[in-house]
TrEMBL record:
It is a multi-pass membrane protein. Keywords: Cell inner membrane, Cell membrane, Membrane, Transmembrane, Transmembrane helix, Transport. The keyword Repeat does not apply. It is found in: Cell membrane. The keyword Transcription does not apply. Its main location: membrane. The chain crosses the membrane at residues 12-29, 41-57, 87-105, 112-131, 151-175, 206-226, 238-256, 263-283, 289-306. InterPro entries: ABC_transp_permease (IPR001851). This is Autoinducer 2 import system permease protein LsrD. Part of the ABC transporter complex LsrABCD involved in autoinducer 2 (AI-2) import. Probably responsible for the translocation of the substrate across the membrane.
């Protein structure tokens, strides 16, 4: 019974919370509201999956939100300038991947701890985003070939949901079914032992941080397409929630380890929590208080990987 509680207890608690909102929160269980929760979960979960890949190799990427914001305004600037939407998408993804590679090279080549390296990258990205926009968001009637990435449907299913499924499947497949994923996990759990066994740990760290940046770019493009705008701080609200999703996910399914099912389920729980509290008339600051409690509690429950990443300065 104890192993079952340790492995699935947090997931059961999350399901119980959602059921409570179904019963007590007005309009929570309506199809439209639940679809909105799932769509919002898509942005958060994709960003969190990237952070989780960085944490898998025992590194912290604290630049995800700023990288996403810069990627969004880069794509938005090209859309606003009437460039081909495919070029805008590639530019947004390229910025995310490029800054992820910068993080990886700073950590592996310059030996700067990821805590410091990614904070520096975040500051650079924030400055570039404000320089690019002059503090004014790009807004307009953007082509449906771009906005359809988020707003459209395929065979009756929201494209956002399909992007989430694709990101989840690819990340899970990488970690669970490939040698590269196994090497990333080994690097994160015991770097020196992995290095002595012949694993190129530097390459694994570079890959993990590069993928974190790429996922931030994907999130950025989908966010910009969904709201037809791009602002220099548009992904800021997702930062703590993405970290919380990964940490909360580490308390379930594979306790103590970043894992894909836990991250995605935790992202849904966090978005359902925020939505339910709003519908029940809770004050805006209650969400922040709950988020802080979740982060502290999650780290207390599964602190090993997080401590390794944060305190190896």
């Amino acid at each position: 019974m104890k192993p079952l509680i340790e492995r699935y207890g947090t997931a059961f608690a999350g399901m119980a919370m959602v059921l409570a909102f179904v019963v007590f929160a007005p309009n929570f269980a309506t199809a439209g509201n639940l679809l909105n929760v799932v769509k919002d979960t898509s942005f958060l979960a994709i960003l969190a999956l990237g952070f989780g890949l960085a944490l898998t190799i025992a590194e912290l990427d604290l630049s995800i939100a700023e990288v996403a914001s810069l990627s969004a305004v880069t794509a938005g600037a090209l859309i606003q300038g009437k460039y081909d939407p495919s070029l805008a998408v590639l530019a947004g993804l390229g910025v995310g991947l490029g800054l992820g590679l910068l993080n990886g090279l700073t950590v592996t080549a310059l030996r700067v701890p990821s805590l410091i390296a990614t904070l520096g990258t975040a500051a650079i990205a924030r400055g570039l985003a404000f320089m690019e926009t002059q503090g004014v968001a790009f807004v307009g009637r953007w082509p449906t070939s771009f906005t359809g990435l988020s707003r459209g449907t395929t065979l009756g299913v929201s494209n956002l949901v399909l992007w989430l499924v694709a990101a989840t499947a690819l990340t899970y497949g990488l970690i669970k079914w490939t040698r590269t994923g196994a090497r990333m996990v080994a690097t994160g759990e015991a770097e020196e032992a992995a290095r002595l066994s012949g694993i190129a740990t530097g390459r694994m760290k570079l890959l993990g941080l590069a993928l974190s940046g790429l996922f931030a770019g994907v999130t950025a493009v989908l966010l910009a397409a969904n709201v037809s705008s791009a602002a220099p701080n548009m992904a800021g609200d997702y930062f703590l929630y993405a970290i919380a999703a990964v940490l909360l996910g580490m308390t379930m399914f594979e306790p103590g380890h970043p894992n894909v099912p836990g991250t995605v389920f935790a992202a849904f729980v966090l978005k359902a929590l925020g939505n339910g509290l709003v519908l029940m008339g809770a004050a805006y600051y209650v969400q922040d208080i709950m988020l802080g409690v979740i982060i502290i509690g999650s780290v207390a429950f599964s602190a090993s990987v997080v401590k390794q990443a944060a305190f190896k300065v």
